Amino acid sequence: MLDSKPNHWYAIYTRARAEKKVYEQLLRSGYEAYLPLVTTVRQWSDRKKKVKTPLISSYVFIKIEEAKLINALSVYGAVRILKYLGKNAIVKDQEIQNLKLLLNNNFNVKPVRYNKFDIGDNVEVVSGTLSGLKGIVIKEKNKHNLFVKIQALNRYLRAEIPLNSIKKVIN
After folding, report:
1. Is the pTM higher than 0.85?
2. pLDDT tens for residues 93-120?
């Protein structure tokens, strides 16, 4: 009987603006990887252009057995694995699923740069294409927004979601 170790999601920190290259190399090497991309409009002096940019700069996600992480770092542009309390930080499957739900359904998703939140209710989306998405409700300038936290990265994303499609989750 084979003793199979579980695969978890980890965040690989990359060189500046090397996320796409690291992601492509990981895929070519046979790894399961994920790079959340958003379309943004870039302005040059003579034109505007829509480009796909990483939602979370300098990070690529990889699903792998922890013992094999060192092999993934051999990819050019990969710098290190994100650590938490001295250990490789595991990104929860639900956090990757939340990213995929938001981005695959063309919601206007933007990274939020806050150092500290006054945390509101934990909620889950119960209707619509984002069913199953979990996050935190924050009221901001008379608008209700759902903030999705990727705990391992200590990052937040914001999406405006109708309150009638959200239910409170009691921990």
Report:
1. no
2. 999 999 999 898 877 787 764 333 334 7
Q: List the one residue out of 6, 39, 54, 9 whose CA is nearest residue 150.
A: 9
Strands 59-65 vs 78-81: parallel, antiparallel or unpaired: unpaired
Query: Tokens for 98?
Result: 């939340």
For the beta carbon of residue 30, count every other beta carbon within 10 angstroms: 7
Distance CA 37, CA 161 (A): 20
User: Is 124:171 a contact under the CB 8 Å cutoff?
Assistant: no
SS3 label, residue 10: strand
Residues 6+ apart with CB under 8 A from 92: 9, 151, 152
Burial-class residue 124 by CB neighbours within 10 Å (0-12, 13-18, 19+): middle
